[in-house]
Amino acid sequence: MTRLLLQLRKLRSLRKGRAFAASACLFLFSVSLYNLFGPGNPIHAGSLNSISASTTSRLSAKGNFRRAIDRITVDTAARMEGQSGEACSECRLPSSINPESPPWQSWVSLKGARLSALTSFTASAPVISAASRTSAASLTSLTSPSSPIVAAPNAPLSVYAARIPDGAAILVANNGNNGDEKAPFDLSVKLNRGVYSVDRLVLDMKMPETSARVERLESVVLGGTGKVSKPGSLAAGSLAVYRFTNRCAEVQGRYDSVKSGVRAMRSARPSECRILMIPLNECEGHLGALAKGIQPKKRYDSLRYIHRALLTVAHAQALCQNYRGQGRLPRTGADQLDGALDRLQSALTELSAGCLNLLPSLAVTAPDTMTPNKYAVTVQLTNAGQQSVSMVRLGADGPAGATVSPSDRAMFNILKPGETARATFTIRSQADTPPLEIAADIAWLAARTPAHLHLKNPL
User: Fold this and answer.
1) Across the chain, how many H-helices and E-strands are there?
2) Residue 306 buriedness (CB in 10 A; 0-12 / 13-18 / 19+)
3) What is the pLDDT of residues 347-362, one digit of tens each?
4) Which of 13, 83, 291, 331 counts the most CB atoms within 10 A of its CB?
Protein backbone atom coordinates (compact mmCIF):
# COMPACT_ATOMS: atom_id res chain seq x y z
CA MET A 1 0.00 0.00 0.00
CA THR A 2 2.83 2.38 0.88
CA ARG A 3 4.59 1.65 -2.41
CA LEU A 4 1.37 2.38 -4.34
CA LEU A 5 1.02 5.81 -2.64
CA LEU A 6 4.62 6.71 -3.51
CA GLN A 7 4.06 5.83 -7.19
CA LEU A 8 0.89 7.98 -7.27
CA ARG A 9 2.81 10.98 -5.82
CA LYS A 10 5.56 10.61 -8.46
CA LEU A 11 2.94 10.50 -11.21
CA ARG A 12 1.27 13.70 -9.91
CA SER A 13 4.60 15.57 -9.72
CA LEU A 14 5.43 14.52 -13.28
CA ARG A 15 2.09 15.78 -14.54
CA LYS A 16 2.61 19.14 -12.74
CA GLY A 17 6.03 19.54 -14.37
CA ARG A 18 4.59 18.96 -17.84
CA ALA A 19 1.76 21.39 -17.17
CA PHE A 20 4.26 24.01 -15.99
CA ALA A 21 6.35 23.58 -19.13
CA ALA A 22 3.27 23.96 -21.33
CA SER A 23 2.23 27.08 -19.41
CA ALA A 24 5.70 28.57 -19.80
CA CYS A 25 5.65 28.00 -23.58
CA LEU A 26 2.20 29.57 -23.83
CA PHE A 27 3.39 32.60 -21.82
CA LEU A 28 6.45 33.15 -24.05
CA PHE A 29 4.28 32.87 -27.16
CA SER A 30 1.89 35.48 -25.74
CA VAL A 31 4.78 37.86 -25.00
CA SER A 32 6.02 37.60 -28.59
CA LEU A 33 2.54 38.39 -29.93
CA TYR A 34 2.32 41.39 -27.59
CA ASN A 35 5.64 42.78 -28.84
CA LEU A 36 4.58 42.30 -32.46
CA PHE A 37 1.03 43.67 -32.47
CA GLY A 38 0.82 45.79 -29.32
CA PRO A 39 -1.78 45.64 -26.56
CA GLY A 40 -5.36 44.83 -27.38
CA ASN A 41 -4.83 44.26 -31.14
CA PRO A 42 -6.29 40.98 -32.36
CA ILE A 43 -4.70 39.13 -35.27
CA HIS A 44 -6.50 39.64 -38.59
CA ALA A 45 -5.98 37.88 -41.87
CA GLY A 46 -3.87 40.01 -44.21
CA SER A 47 -2.55 42.33 -41.51
CA LEU A 48 1.01 41.08 -41.91
CA ASN A 49 1.14 42.43 -45.48
CA SER A 50 -0.08 45.78 -44.20
CA ILE A 51 2.77 46.18 -41.73
CA SER A 52 5.46 44.47 -43.76
CA ALA A 53 6.77 47.85 -44.96
CA SER A 54 7.28 49.10 -41.40
CA THR A 55 10.93 48.06 -41.42
CA THR A 56 11.97 51.58 -42.37
CA SER A 57 13.19 53.59 -39.42
CA ARG A 58 11.87 57.02 -40.46
CA LEU A 59 8.33 57.58 -41.70
CA SER A 60 6.37 60.51 -43.03
CA ALA A 61 2.89 60.66 -41.49
CA LYS A 62 -0.33 61.76 -43.19
CA GLY A 63 -3.51 60.94 -41.29
CA ASN A 64 -3.64 57.31 -40.25
CA PHE A 65 -1.35 56.30 -43.09
CA ARG A 66 2.39 56.61 -43.32
CA ARG A 67 4.46 56.47 -46.45
CA ALA A 68 7.72 54.56 -46.15
CA ILE A 69 10.90 56.41 -47.04
CA ASP A 70 12.51 55.43 -50.33
CA ARG A 71 16.23 54.77 -49.96
CA ILE A 72 18.16 56.04 -52.98
CA THR A 73 21.79 54.97 -53.24
CA VAL A 74 24.29 56.39 -55.73
CA ASP A 75 27.88 55.23 -56.16
CA THR A 76 29.96 57.81 -58.00
CA ALA A 77 32.80 55.32 -58.43
CA ALA A 78 30.66 52.71 -60.24
CA ARG A 79 29.26 53.04 -63.73
CA MET A 80 25.87 51.64 -64.71
CA GLU A 81 27.01 48.85 -66.99
CA GLY A 82 24.80 48.05 -69.95
CA GLN A 83 22.64 51.14 -69.32
CA SER A 84 23.16 54.06 -71.67
CA GLY A 85 19.68 55.59 -71.81
CA GLU A 86 18.85 59.27 -71.64
CA ALA A 87 17.68 60.83 -68.36
CA CYS A 88 14.22 61.94 -69.56
CA SER A 89 13.32 58.57 -71.05
CA GLU A 90 14.82 56.52 -68.22
CA CYS A 91 12.87 58.51 -65.59
CA ARG A 92 9.68 58.53 -67.73
CA LEU A 93 9.39 62.32 -67.68
CA PRO A 94 6.36 63.87 -69.40
CA SER A 95 6.44 65.54 -72.81
CA SER A 96 6.54 68.98 -71.13
CA ILE A 97 10.24 68.28 -70.46
CA ASN A 98 12.10 68.63 -73.74
CA PRO A 99 14.98 66.09 -73.81
CA GLU A 100 16.89 68.25 -76.28
CA SER A 101 16.80 71.35 -74.05
CA PRO A 102 15.70 70.41 -70.52
CA PRO A 103 15.16 73.23 -68.01
CA TRP A 104 18.33 72.31 -66.12
CA GLN A 105 20.54 72.46 -69.23
CA SER A 106 22.11 75.85 -68.40
CA TRP A 107 22.78 74.74 -64.83
CA VAL A 108 24.10 71.19 -65.12
CA SER A 109 24.39 68.46 -67.75
CA LEU A 110 23.20 64.87 -67.32
CA LYS A 111 24.89 63.66 -70.49
CA GLY A 112 28.06 62.40 -68.80
CA ALA A 113 28.89 58.79 -68.00
CA ARG A 114 25.94 57.15 -66.27
CA LEU A 115 26.55 56.20 -62.63
CA SER A 116 25.07 53.43 -60.50
CA ALA A 117 21.81 54.65 -58.93
CA LEU A 118 19.20 52.44 -57.25
CA THR A 119 15.97 52.91 -55.29
CA SER A 120 14.72 50.65 -52.51
CA PHE A 121 11.11 50.43 -53.73
CA THR A 122 9.85 48.70 -56.84
CA ALA A 123 6.47 48.52 -58.51
CA SER A 124 5.79 45.22 -56.70
CA ALA A 125 6.13 46.78 -53.26
CA PRO A 126 3.23 45.84 -50.96
CA VAL A 127 0.51 48.46 -50.68
CA ILE A 128 -2.67 48.68 -48.68
CA SER A 129 -5.65 47.57 -50.73
CA ALA A 130 -8.71 49.77 -51.07
CA ALA A 131 -10.80 47.16 -49.25
CA SER A 132 -8.75 47.60 -46.09
CA ARG A 133 -9.47 51.38 -46.04
CA THR A 134 -13.26 51.15 -45.87
CA SER A 135 -13.77 52.37 -42.33
CA ALA A 136 -11.97 53.75 -39.32
CA ALA A 137 -12.98 50.65 -37.37
CA SER A 138 -11.10 48.37 -39.75
CA LEU A 139 -8.03 50.64 -39.47
CA THR A 140 -7.93 50.47 -35.68
CA SER A 141 -8.38 46.71 -35.78
CA LEU A 142 -5.35 46.32 -38.04
CA THR A 143 -2.86 48.27 -35.95
CA SER A 144 -2.61 50.48 -32.92
CA PRO A 145 -2.69 54.32 -33.10
CA SER A 146 0.97 54.41 -32.15
CA SER A 147 1.89 52.29 -35.17
CA PRO A 148 0.06 53.75 -38.20
CA ILE A 149 -0.26 51.73 -41.37
CA VAL A 150 2.70 51.99 -43.75
CA ALA A 151 2.02 52.31 -47.45
CA ALA A 152 4.62 51.95 -50.19
CA PRO A 153 4.47 54.57 -52.96
CA ASN A 154 1.95 53.83 -55.69
CA ALA A 155 4.40 55.22 -58.23
CA PRO A 156 8.01 54.67 -57.09
CA LEU A 157 10.54 57.42 -57.45
CA SER A 158 12.82 57.17 -60.46
CA VAL A 159 16.47 58.17 -60.34
CA TYR A 160 19.22 58.88 -62.85
CA ALA A 161 22.85 59.78 -62.03
CA ALA A 162 25.63 61.02 -64.31
CA ARG A 163 29.20 62.12 -63.88
CA ILE A 164 30.00 65.82 -64.29
CA PRO A 165 33.37 67.58 -64.13
CA ASP A 166 34.57 67.34 -60.52
CA GLY A 167 31.42 65.66 -59.22
CA ALA A 168 28.07 64.08 -59.97
CA ALA A 169 24.52 65.11 -60.91
CA ILE A 170 21.48 63.13 -59.76
CA LEU A 171 17.90 63.45 -61.02
CA VAL A 172 15.05 62.23 -58.80
CA ALA A 173 11.50 62.34 -60.22
CA ASN A 174 8.10 61.58 -58.71
CA ASN A 175 5.74 60.49 -61.49
CA GLY A 176 2.76 59.96 -59.18
CA ASN A 177 -0.64 61.57 -59.70
CA ASN A 178 -1.66 62.29 -56.10
CA GLY A 179 -0.65 65.91 -55.60
CA ASP A 180 -1.70 65.94 -51.94
CA GLU A 181 1.03 63.54 -50.81
CA LYS A 182 4.78 63.96 -50.90
CA ALA A 183 7.10 61.04 -51.45
CA PRO A 184 9.89 61.13 -48.84
CA PHE A 185 13.31 59.78 -49.71
CA ASP A 186 16.83 59.56 -48.34
CA LEU A 187 19.54 60.18 -50.94
CA SER A 188 22.78 58.40 -50.02
CA VAL A 189 25.76 59.20 -52.26
CA LYS A 190 29.19 57.58 -52.11
CA LEU A 191 31.87 60.20 -52.80
CA ASN A 192 35.64 60.48 -52.84
CA ARG A 193 37.45 62.76 -50.41
CA GLY A 194 37.02 66.49 -50.85
CA VAL A 195 34.94 69.52 -49.93
CA TYR A 196 31.60 69.32 -51.74
CA SER A 197 29.10 72.05 -52.50
CA VAL A 198 25.61 70.58 -52.79
CA ASP A 199 23.01 72.41 -54.88
CA ARG A 200 19.46 71.32 -55.64
CA LEU A 201 17.12 72.38 -58.46
CA VAL A 202 13.40 71.69 -57.92
CA LEU A 203 10.62 72.19 -60.46
CA ASP A 204 7.06 71.22 -61.29
CA MET A 205 7.09 69.08 -64.44
CA LYS A 206 3.81 70.64 -65.61
CA MET A 207 5.36 74.14 -65.53
CA PRO A 208 9.10 73.54 -65.95
CA GLU A 209 9.97 77.00 -67.28
CA THR A 210 8.36 79.06 -64.52
CA SER A 211 8.52 76.85 -61.42
CA ALA A 212 12.25 76.05 -61.30
CA ARG A 213 14.24 77.21 -58.28
CA VAL A 214 17.77 76.46 -57.07
CA GLU A 215 18.94 76.28 -53.46
CA ARG A 216 22.29 75.60 -51.80
CA LEU A 217 22.34 72.81 -49.22
CA GLU A 218 24.90 72.38 -46.47
CA SER A 219 28.36 71.52 -47.70
CA VAL A 220 30.10 68.22 -47.06
CA VAL A 221 33.74 67.71 -46.02
CA LEU A 222 35.17 64.20 -46.48
CA GLY A 223 38.69 63.28 -45.41
CA GLY A 224 38.39 60.00 -47.34
CA THR A 225 35.86 58.02 -49.33
CA GLY A 226 32.52 58.09 -47.56
CA LYS A 227 28.74 58.30 -47.90
CA VAL A 228 26.68 61.48 -47.73
CA SER A 229 22.99 61.45 -46.83
CA LYS A 230 20.56 64.14 -47.97
CA PRO A 231 16.91 63.61 -46.97
CA GLY A 232 14.14 65.17 -49.03
CA SER A 233 10.62 64.81 -50.36
CA LEU A 234 8.93 65.42 -53.69
CA ALA A 235 5.32 66.20 -54.51
CA ALA A 236 3.69 64.18 -57.26
CA GLY A 237 4.62 65.52 -60.69
CA SER A 238 7.82 67.24 -59.56
CA LEU A 239 11.51 66.51 -59.86
CA ALA A 240 14.79 67.51 -58.24
CA VAL A 241 18.30 67.61 -59.66
CA TYR A 242 21.16 67.43 -57.15
CA ARG A 243 24.64 68.68 -58.04
CA PHE A 244 27.64 67.56 -55.97
CA THR A 245 30.78 69.56 -56.83
CA ASN A 246 34.18 68.65 -55.39
CA ARG A 247 35.74 72.07 -54.83
CA CYS A 248 39.19 70.62 -54.03
CA ALA A 249 39.36 68.84 -57.39
CA GLU A 250 37.95 71.92 -59.10
CA VAL A 251 40.67 74.17 -57.64
CA GLN A 252 43.42 71.82 -58.78
CA GLY A 253 42.00 71.63 -62.30
CA ARG A 254 41.66 75.40 -62.54
CA TYR A 255 45.24 75.92 -61.35
CA ASP A 256 46.52 73.49 -64.00
CA SER A 257 44.64 75.51 -66.65
CA VAL A 258 46.31 78.71 -65.45
CA LYS A 259 49.78 77.15 -65.70
CA SER A 260 48.97 75.92 -69.20
CA GLY A 261 47.98 79.46 -70.21
CA VAL A 262 51.29 80.88 -68.98
CA ARG A 263 53.25 78.07 -70.62
CA ALA A 264 51.63 78.81 -73.98
CA MET A 265 53.08 82.37 -73.95
CA ARG A 266 56.46 81.56 -72.44
CA SER A 267 58.38 81.32 -75.72
CA ALA A 268 57.04 84.66 -77.00
CA ARG A 269 57.19 86.59 -73.69
CA PRO A 270 59.68 84.82 -71.37
CA SER A 271 60.31 87.75 -69.04
CA GLU A 272 56.64 88.53 -68.39
CA CYS A 273 55.77 84.85 -67.91
CA ARG A 274 58.62 84.42 -65.42
CA ILE A 275 57.24 87.31 -63.34
CA LEU A 276 53.71 85.91 -63.60
CA MET A 277 54.88 82.56 -62.21
CA ILE A 278 56.23 84.15 -59.01
CA PRO A 279 52.80 84.56 -57.34
CA LEU A 280 51.51 81.42 -59.05
CA ASN A 281 54.33 79.33 -57.56
CA GLU A 282 53.44 80.75 -54.17
CA CYS A 283 49.83 79.80 -54.81
CA GLU A 284 50.92 76.26 -55.65
CA GLY A 285 52.70 76.05 -52.31
CA HIS A 286 49.50 76.94 -50.44
CA LEU A 287 47.53 74.41 -52.46
CA GLY A 288 50.16 71.79 -51.71
CA ALA A 289 49.34 72.11 -48.01
CA LEU A 290 45.83 70.88 -48.90
CA ALA A 291 46.98 68.08 -51.21
CA LYS A 292 46.45 65.33 -48.61
CA GLY A 293 42.84 66.33 -48.16
CA ILE A 294 40.88 68.47 -45.73
CA GLN A 295 39.75 66.65 -42.62
CA PRO A 296 36.27 67.48 -41.28
CA LYS A 297 37.59 68.34 -37.82
CA LYS A 298 40.24 70.66 -39.32
CA ARG A 299 38.12 72.35 -41.98
CA TYR A 300 38.62 75.79 -40.41
CA ASP A 301 42.40 75.32 -40.15
CA SER A 302 42.61 75.06 -43.94
CA LEU A 303 41.17 78.55 -44.43
CA ARG A 304 44.52 80.28 -44.00
CA TYR A 305 45.95 78.35 -46.98
CA ILE A 306 42.87 78.96 -49.12
CA HIS A 307 42.77 82.69 -48.46
CA ARG A 308 46.52 83.12 -48.91
CA ALA A 309 46.13 81.43 -52.28
CA LEU A 310 43.39 83.96 -53.07
CA LEU A 311 45.86 86.79 -52.41
CA THR A 312 48.43 85.31 -54.78
CA VAL A 313 45.81 84.84 -57.49
CA ALA A 314 44.77 88.49 -57.11
CA HIS A 315 48.43 89.47 -57.58
CA ALA A 316 48.66 87.38 -60.76
CA GLN A 317 45.40 88.92 -62.05
CA ALA A 318 46.78 92.44 -61.58
CA LEU A 319 50.00 91.54 -63.42
CA CYS A 320 48.09 89.94 -66.30
CA GLN A 321 45.81 92.96 -66.73
CA ASN A 322 48.72 95.40 -66.61
CA TYR A 323 50.77 93.47 -69.18
CA ARG A 324 47.75 93.18 -71.45
CA GLY A 325 47.08 96.91 -71.24
CA GLN A 326 50.73 97.68 -72.00
CA GLY A 327 50.80 95.26 -74.93
CA ARG A 328 53.49 93.13 -73.30
CA LEU A 329 51.39 89.96 -73.69
CA PRO A 330 49.58 88.67 -76.79
CA ARG A 331 45.99 89.87 -76.66
CA THR A 332 44.40 86.46 -77.20
CA GLY A 333 46.69 84.68 -74.77
CA ALA A 334 46.24 87.39 -72.13
CA ASP A 335 42.45 87.17 -72.42
CA GLN A 336 42.53 83.40 -72.03
CA LEU A 337 44.86 83.65 -69.04
CA ASP A 338 42.70 86.32 -67.42
CA GLY A 339 39.63 84.11 -67.79
CA ALA A 340 41.50 81.13 -66.30
CA LEU A 341 42.60 83.26 -63.33
CA ASP A 342 39.00 84.39 -62.78
CA ARG A 343 37.83 80.76 -62.72
CA LEU A 344 40.60 79.84 -60.27
CA GLN A 345 39.61 82.72 -58.01
CA SER A 346 35.96 81.60 -58.13
CA ALA A 347 36.89 77.99 -57.31
CA LEU A 348 38.99 79.07 -54.32
CA THR A 349 36.14 81.24 -53.04
CA GLU A 350 33.71 78.32 -53.36
CA LEU A 351 36.21 76.17 -51.46
CA SER A 352 36.29 78.79 -48.70
CA ALA A 353 32.48 78.83 -48.59
CA GLY A 354 32.44 75.04 -48.38
CA CYS A 355 34.85 74.89 -45.45
CA LEU A 356 32.92 77.66 -43.64
CA ASN A 357 29.57 76.06 -44.62
CA LEU A 358 28.32 79.36 -46.05
CA LEU A 359 25.23 79.07 -48.24
CA PRO A 360 24.97 81.83 -50.89
CA SER A 361 21.68 82.38 -52.70
CA LEU A 362 20.31 84.46 -55.58
CA ALA A 363 16.61 84.73 -56.43
CA VAL A 364 15.35 86.69 -59.45
CA THR A 365 11.65 87.52 -59.77
CA ALA A 366 10.47 87.79 -63.35
CA PRO A 367 9.00 91.17 -64.36
CA ASP A 368 5.28 91.60 -64.95
CA THR A 369 3.62 92.89 -68.12
CA MET A 370 3.34 96.46 -66.78
CA THR A 371 7.09 96.75 -66.13
CA PRO A 372 8.74 94.23 -68.47
CA ASN A 373 12.30 95.43 -67.81
CA LYS A 374 12.14 95.56 -64.02
CA TYR A 375 13.56 92.64 -61.99
CA ALA A 376 13.40 92.13 -58.24
CA VAL A 377 16.61 90.47 -57.00
CA THR A 378 17.19 88.98 -53.56
CA VAL A 379 20.72 88.12 -52.45
CA GLN A 380 21.42 86.30 -49.22
CA LEU A 381 24.17 84.48 -47.36
CA THR A 382 23.46 81.96 -44.59
CA ASN A 383 26.11 80.87 -42.10
CA ALA A 384 25.40 77.19 -41.46
CA GLY A 385 28.86 76.61 -39.97
CA GLN A 386 30.34 77.02 -36.51
CA GLN A 387 32.58 80.03 -37.09
CA SER A 388 31.59 83.66 -37.57
CA VAL A 389 32.64 85.65 -40.63
CA SER A 390 33.01 89.43 -40.77
CA MET A 391 32.70 92.25 -43.29
CA VAL A 392 29.92 90.56 -45.26
CA ARG A 393 28.93 92.48 -48.39
CA LEU A 394 25.91 91.75 -50.60
CA GLY A 395 25.21 93.33 -53.97
CA ALA A 396 23.66 92.70 -57.39
CA ASP A 397 24.99 93.22 -60.91
CA GLY A 398 23.04 93.58 -64.14
CA PRO A 399 23.96 93.69 -67.83
CA ALA A 400 25.62 96.68 -69.45
CA GLY A 401 23.41 99.75 -69.30
CA ALA A 402 21.19 98.43 -66.51
CA THR A 403 20.43 100.44 -63.38
CA VAL A 404 20.75 98.75 -59.99
CA SER A 405 18.87 100.25 -57.03
CA PRO A 406 20.20 100.74 -54.43
CA SER A 407 23.58 101.12 -56.03
CA ASP A 408 25.53 100.58 -52.80
CA ARG A 409 26.33 97.16 -51.40
CA ALA A 410 24.60 96.05 -48.20
CA MET A 411 27.20 95.74 -45.41
CA PHE A 412 27.10 93.49 -42.33
CA ASN A 413 29.84 93.72 -39.74
CA ILE A 414 29.55 90.10 -38.61
CA LEU A 415 27.58 87.02 -39.58
CA LYS A 416 27.36 84.56 -36.70
CA PRO A 417 26.56 80.82 -36.97
CA GLY A 418 22.88 80.30 -37.73
CA GLU A 419 22.35 83.84 -39.04
CA THR A 420 21.33 84.93 -42.55
CA ALA A 421 22.23 88.22 -44.23
CA ARG A 422 19.74 89.31 -46.89
CA ALA A 423 19.42 92.27 -49.27
CA THR A 424 16.92 93.15 -52.00
CA PHE A 425 17.70 95.08 -55.18
CA THR A 426 15.83 96.29 -58.23
CA ILE A 427 17.40 96.06 -61.68
CA ARG A 428 15.99 98.10 -64.56
CA SER A 429 17.34 97.46 -68.03
CA GLN A 430 16.88 99.40 -71.24
CA ALA A 431 15.84 96.31 -73.21
CA ASP A 432 14.69 92.77 -72.49
CA THR A 433 17.35 91.34 -70.21
CA PRO A 434 17.95 87.59 -70.07
CA PRO A 435 17.83 86.54 -66.41
CA LEU A 436 21.14 84.73 -66.90
CA GLU A 437 22.90 88.12 -67.15
CA ILE A 438 21.91 89.01 -63.56
CA ALA A 439 24.41 88.04 -60.86
CA ALA A 440 25.02 88.44 -57.14
CA ASP A 441 28.14 90.01 -55.68
CA ILE A 442 28.96 88.39 -52.30
CA ALA A 443 32.07 88.98 -50.20
CA TRP A 444 33.26 88.08 -46.70
CA LEU A 445 36.39 88.20 -44.57
CA ALA A 446 37.95 85.06 -43.10
CA ALA A 447 41.50 84.27 -41.97
CA ARG A 448 42.14 88.04 -42.20
CA THR A 449 41.73 87.86 -45.97
CA PRO A 450 38.73 88.78 -48.14
CA ALA A 451 36.92 86.35 -50.42
CA HIS A 452 34.77 87.52 -53.31
CA LEU A 453 32.08 85.41 -54.99
CA HIS A 454 30.36 86.34 -58.26
CA LEU A 455 27.22 84.17 -58.21
CA LYS A 456 25.43 84.01 -61.56
CA ASN A 457 21.74 83.38 -61.92
CA PRO A 458 21.55 79.60 -62.43
CA LEU A 459 18.34 79.67 -64.50
Assistant:
1) 9, 20
2) buried
3) 999 999 999 999 999 9
4) 83
